[in-house]
Amino acid sequence: GGGGHANRGKGKNATEYFGWTASKEQWNNSNFAYQVAQMCVEFPKVYCELAYITELFEGSDQDCLQSQEKLKRNLLDAADFAGHHPFLSKVAYGSDWNMPHMVRHPYEYLKVFLNLFGSDAHLIKHVDDFFWKNAYNFLGLAT
């Protein structure tokens, strides 16, 4: 998965972690999504998926668009990571539909990713990879 951010704890001891919707400043080696993308390009059996990133479609239109743009920027940056395996051949559409909150929004979530992959010339080349081919490869079903 890798949602945008979550607060852990309360008060001044609260910590935040940022995932796929991190700002430019937060998109670095201390970000778990960044680290996962690095592992995907380095190791042949490491894949990841994007699921349950609710800030992509919940909240104000402006906030959702900003989160979507951050995700897009971070995906494109991860696509440029040096390694043995191209990142866009290692990331898949998320399937965490068993989460109680998420099952109320499957179409909105799908629509965000269809729009995202249709809005960029580089990403559109990988739309089939993202939505099904990478999962087939992970499962060993590709021919």
Please name the defining characteristics of this protein:
mainly alpha, globular, two-stranded parallel ribbon, 10% strand
Describe the structure.
This protein is mainly alpha-helical and 143 residues long. It is built from 5 helices and 4 strands. It has a two-stranded antiparallel sheet with strand order 1-2. The chain has a two-stranded parallel ribbon with strand order 3-4. It starts with a strand and ends with a helix. Residues 1-15 have low confidence and may be disordered.
Question: In summary, what is this structure?
Answer:
By secondary structure, the chain is mainly alpha-helical. The chain has five helices and four strands.
The tally of beta strands, per DSSP, is 4
N- and C-termini, Cα separation: 27 Å
What would the average pLDDT be, to the nearest integer? Answer: 86
Number of helices: 5
Write the element-wise H/E pattern from the N-terminal end onward.
EEHEHEHHH
Task: Give the overall shape, derived from the CA principal axes.
Answer: globular
| Rg calc | 15 Å
Q: Which structural class do you get from the secondary structure elements?
A: mainly alpha
Largest sheet: 2 strands, antiparallel
Q: Which consecutive residue ranges, at least 5 long each, have pLDDT under 50? A: 1-15
Strand order of the largest sheet: 1-2
Q: β content, as a range?
A: 5-15%
Helix content: 40-55%
